[in-house]
Amino acid sequence: MKSSTRTWLAITAATGMVLGGISPAVAAGNAGPSEHTDMGVTGDAVMEHLQSISDISTSHADEGFRALGTPGYEEAVEYVEATLEDTGAFDVERQAFEVDDQTFGDVAVSVDGQDLEVTPASYTEGTDEPLTELPLALPVDDDYSDLAGGQLGCAAGDFDDSAEGAVVLVARGSCAFGEKTQAATDAGAAAVILYNNDTSAPDEALSATLGERIADGAPTVGVSYNAGNELLTKVEGAAEDEPLLADFTLETEYTTSTTWNVIAETKAGDHDNVQMFGAHLDGVPEGPGVNDNGSGSAALLASAEALAKQPTEADNAIRFGWWGAEEVGLVGSTRYVESLGESELSKVKSYMNFDMIGSDNYIVGTLDSDGSDVPIPDGVNVPEGSAELEEVFTDYFADIDQPNVGTSFSGRSDYQAFIDNGIPSSGLFSGADGTKTQEEADLFGGTVGEKHDTNYHQATDTIDNVNKESVDIFAPAIGYAVHTLAYDLSEAPAPTDPPTTPPTEPPTETPTETPTDDPTEAPDERSLSIDPTTIDQSDFVGERGVQVTAAGCTPDTAATMTVDPQNGKIERFEQTATADAGSVATFGVRGLDESKAATYVGTYEVTVDCDGGDPLSGSFEVLAADSDGPGAGGGGGDLPRTGNEAMPLVISAGALIVLGVAMTMGARRRRD
After folding, report:
1. Which of 84, 124, 257, 317 is the most exposed place for a label (fewest CB within 10 A)?
2. 509 is catalytic
3. Domains in the chain, ordered, with CATH?
4. What is the pTM of this model?
């Protein structure tokens, strides 16, 4: 189970700053929220939208429900648009794009007179006419028991002359399905049977996608591990002059369909600092797709409505995306990301994905971008900041004592295009075709050994089979994430005690003491200390940093430090601290991004304004690593490290500069 680690970050521009302490990125006069909330998003609100999406889908049951190219999908798009426009808070756009659609006619494969249960691969070519009595052949391998080596058929050299004009049997693994079909085609195979390599689910059908059409490619189907292993055993046992014979028919037709994404962005907020949330709206033609993925789509609608009702406008622009053509290869989200130029892409600082939140045998899953629960698969890019996005959910669940588990950060949903382009990503997932373990059942209930969604891609994916308990857990978590990325927090005003009525004691008629002629003590000398005034860049991004101390401030009043960088690379920023009983306010400044240490080089003007006199000013300089100037090589005084001396640097007075921050997770977590 995920543990809770608290992280405070602030979303700023690429060369922005993060102010350490209780409330990051606090702006003067900001009347926004002082803590993050779930905005009142409930399972009931999600179910209301989900019922509407379900009604749309089932009304088009004879036309493919809500699949690509169907009237049902277009009506669902219209429903999403109307819901968003009714709020008045969003600019709504329908993005059209074309996609190859594929339909299948007769698909039948038999070997040695026995019919096989097969699934045609997406993007496969068909047979011009039925293929009959073709030999069933294997790739060349010295050990067909290890699901490795040549039997994977990743190159044409994995086949010998026996593949020419034959139906070849190839194991899943190592390379993409499209590479296997291309290799078999290059070896002269007439058709391909791919079999699953999942020995833990031996009867699990293999639904493969070739990724794209292969010119003159061999028609390709998938079968389960058990079916493939049985065929493998028969082929190995057959006499050399009596091969197993196969019949193979695959009818398919390609058409081009126009479909749409729906994109909605808040009218308010910083449009150079966009936080994005998405879910796919399309389904499969086999069923109404209420959980997959009407549930994620409905949760976004409920969250968008809740955001529109907030009493203050969002600080950061929130952009929602409802994707089309996900079920045929993540096409909608990919086309959207591809449509963004470099400038527009740089404005998208984070992406959160929600693909199924109401599975009947559910888990509470977060996309495990830090690999702490599930190792990151080979070849998957994990942009910096993704782990912090996941912590938005794990911290939230920790605060409400909700168990949760990490799920594979594999790129198998619409966040793929975002992580491929370096955008930090996370999300939630209630499970699909994975099998529930005993550990998961102990955490969430349900049935061990059954799929997380027993209705996945079936006609039974209906509103009646959505698990409301799961939706009730996920709905407020999604609302909380939207609020967290939308708002920078303001400091909550300190509570004040109401005046007593009547006064606790009547005032005395005469002063209790005669005032002295002279002040008993001279006021504290007002001064500003900056230590060190020159610091090497390596020390500035290390633990040393620069300590700023203002003396002569009125005790228990707020002091404001303003740091004005002069190098043109860092933005000006402010931070506040409270003067202690000795009239001293202390701040600390250091760089946090060691990889960009050279960017910090330059002069920094410092001003501290506090009660008790005129503003105090000074400066410090960060020197390049090869500089011979004063302070190069880490000269200057040490900062306090332990005990009470260290506290001013780790409490709310610390000002921490960060470069390249691409997401905001706001500051406060709820704790009863």
Report:
1. 257
2. no
3. 43-100+256-486 (3.40.630.10), 113-243 (3.50.30.30), 527-657 (2.60.40.10)
4. 0.64
